[in-house]
Structures are given as structure tokens and as C-alpha cells.
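Exercise: predict the fold of this chain.
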Amino acid sequence: MKSITIKGSERESVGKKATKALRNAGKVPCVVYGGEKPLHFSANELAFKNLVYTANAHTVVVELENGDKVNAVMQDIQFHPVTDKIIHIDFYQLFKDKEVTMNIPVRLEGNSPGVRNGGRLLFRKRKLTIKAFPENLIDFFKVDISTLKIGDNISVESLLSNDFSILHPDSTVVVQVKTARAAVEEEEEEEEGVEGEEGAEGTEGAEAPAGEAAAESNE
């Protein structure tokens, strides 16, 4: 898996006042867990651009001013609710003899004959969670849809590997092609079910088909 180097400075103080000062200076407070003790450091917000604002998965090398380097993966990130700026990131340190859990993107390749014949491509799982030793982490899952006809699907079962565990049931559908008629009938059934409901739950049910269609249009 490709790695991104983040150059940072170890934090001497982790109090609220010091953390606020870091953010005002355009830096992001971070913590690396998993080692003998948590490593608190900060780095410029721009340093995380290629790690956060991408669909790709990467490991990280945290390079400190004193020359120390720590291999890690991003575990959690927090954004400001108004400005969407990064306000905190948690990392987990990598060790050769310890498995790590990570979300891996799915990439579709090829053209589906089912879609050419009027079917609808439904991309159900854009990321899959795996557990693996660092050396076996993959950049992405490559899924070939060039043989998918109407009614066909590709599930997790076809992506299994001895190098890692996929933390989803084998029957989980990753991508499928459905007939346009069947899709319309499903939407109509969902709408009919919503008519008898009241309140917020009914609203969510009515919006679900539209959200699904919007996602498919991006494909």
C-alpha cells in the first residue's frame, strides 16, 4: 500500500488552551495510539490534503522534528461543524506482527453488458473493511464488471484472499445489475409502504429511492 509522509512536531502540552492555539495557527492536533504510550503531535492542515481528501487508502509515516518516524494508519478524523476544517485526527501505529483494520476502496473496471441492454448498475459497497498485517494491506479492490448481465451480481465471496480477512458476510453484494422495470417496481412498493406511515420515519422512507437513484447517476 502507498504511504504518505506527514511531517509534524511532538506536542509538549495537550491542554485545551494549547490545542486551541495550534488550531489558530493552522495546525491539526493528532494522536498516535497503539504503542507503549500515545504520541501527541501536530502538523499543518495542508499536510493532510492527500490523505483525507481522496478516495484512495494510504498508510502514513509520521516524521517528527527529532528524526523519529512512526508508521501508522488513520483511524478517526473530526471536522469543525461549521467550517469543515480538520480539528483532530487519531492514528493507530503499525507493527509488522500485528493485524490492523482498514477501509479499502472498491474500483469498478470494464463495461457491463447488462447496463448496455438497459439494466441499472447498483454500486452497493464502495469500500470494504479488511483486517490484515501491514505488509498485506492493499490499495484497492479491483472488480471487473465486464461480464455482468441483467440479474447478475458480484459479492464479497469472489474477493476473498488468504492475505487478509474481509469483515463483511461472504454474501454481501458489492455491485449488481438490475432491470429498470424491477427497479421501478421496487420504488413504487416503497412509496406505497410510506403512505400509511406518519412522522419523520415516513419521510426517510420516501427519500430513500431518490438517494439511491442519485448515487447511481454518478456512476
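Check your answer against the key: The first helix runs from residue 16 to 24.
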